[in-house]
């Protein structure tokens, strides 16, 4: 169980408009032509019939870098949404090249790497966004979750505590904190975080499941049975069959050692 449970049913946590780039208008200023008067005079008088009217050619304006970045990121988001991750990453790189100090392309690139399973690249991208001034809680939450998957538990806990300090009722953050605490062996902290999730979001079946399995590992039999029963009831047909089998074994086996050992096997299969 102490591997941290990742939900297939969990909620895990956004794109700008697309103005067209104006076409550059070429500058083509006509040359003024003068026709001398047939009479000899000290000055040259332009022929009134051959004098062209001067025209003003508008000067093409550069598309602001901010707009170019916005357009590139929108295109990248569209590619990522349909699974074209390489194309999305290339577009994010173009946006970064235009302004390496802008944190937004780094942050969005991090989510793409995360979807690809490239956890180290995702962590580095989220860190790059934070280093460039991104302070939104969702970026720290994402980095905490990635660091949890990478086994970077202390940095993950630091990130998630920052999120909870700003958003104390963030259910996703509390669930991640419970998992981190559990892997660190901080079982009371883990139970407390699971309980907060359940209080704020009673329909969070993963909180019931994970707290129940932790209670079983800790030998809290009655509490484990109660939590797992709640999980199975709420999950219905979507309840994990391994968990259902474990629950049946748990409720029918009077010897603690047997179901605790079985619980460890079940936990390994769920992780």
Give a short account of the largest sheet: none
Low-confidence stretches: 1-47, 258-263, 265-271
Proportion of residues in β-strands: under 5%
Helix content: 55-70%
Mean pLDDT: 82
Distance between the termini: 7 Å
Which descriptor suits the 3D outline? elongated
**Helix/strand/pairing class, anyone?**
mainly alpha
Task: Throw out a few tags for this protein.
mainly alpha, 62% helix, 271 residues, 12 helices
Question: Can you describe what's shown?
Answer:
- Helix 1 runs antiparallel to helix 2 (85-98), helix 3 (103-116) runs antiparallel to helix 4 and helix 9 (205-217) runs antiparallel to helix 10 (221-235).
- With 271 residues, this protein is mainly alpha-helical.
- The N and C termini lie close together (7 Å).
- 62% of the residues lie in helices and 0% in strands.
Question: What's the gist of this structure?
Answer:
It is built from twelve helices and no strands. The chain has helices at 65-81, 85-98, 103-116, 119-131, 137-150, 153-166, 171-183, 187-200, 205-217, 221-235, 241-252, 256-270.
């Amino acid at each position: 169980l102490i591997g941290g449970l990742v939900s297939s049913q969990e909620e895990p946590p956004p794109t700008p408009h697309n103005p067209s780039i104006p076409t550059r208008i070429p500058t083509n200023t006509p040359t003024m032509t003068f026709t001398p008067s047939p009479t000899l005079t000290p000055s040259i008088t332009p022929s009134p019939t051959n004098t062209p009217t001067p025209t003003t050619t508008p000067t093409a304006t550069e598309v602001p870098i901010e707009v170019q970045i916005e357009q590139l990121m929108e295109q990248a988001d569209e590619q990522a949404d349909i699974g074209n991750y390489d194309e999305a990453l290339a577009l994010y790189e173009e946006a970064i090249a235009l302004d390496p100090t802008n944190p937004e392309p780094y942050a969005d690139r991090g989510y793409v790497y995360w979807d690809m399973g490239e956890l180290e690249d995702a962590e580095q991208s989220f860190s790059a966004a934070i280093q460039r001034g991104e302070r939104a809680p969702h970026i720290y939450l994402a980095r905490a979750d990635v660091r949890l998957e990478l086994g970077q538990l202390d940095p993950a806990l630091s990130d998630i505590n920052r999120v909870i300090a700003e958003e104390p009722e963030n259910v996703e953050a509390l669930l991640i904190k419970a998992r981190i605490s559990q892997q660190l062996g901080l079982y009371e902290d883990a139970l407390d975080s699971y309980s907060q999730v359940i209080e704020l979001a009673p329909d969070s079946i993963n909180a019931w499941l994970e707290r129940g399995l932790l209670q079983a590992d800790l030998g809290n039999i009655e509490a484990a049975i109660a939590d797992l029963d709640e999980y199975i009831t709420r999950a219905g047909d979507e309840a994990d069959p391994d968990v259902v089998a474990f629950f049946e074994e748990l409720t029918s086996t009077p010897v603690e050692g047997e179901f605790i050992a079985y619980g460890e096997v079940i936990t390994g299969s769920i992780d």
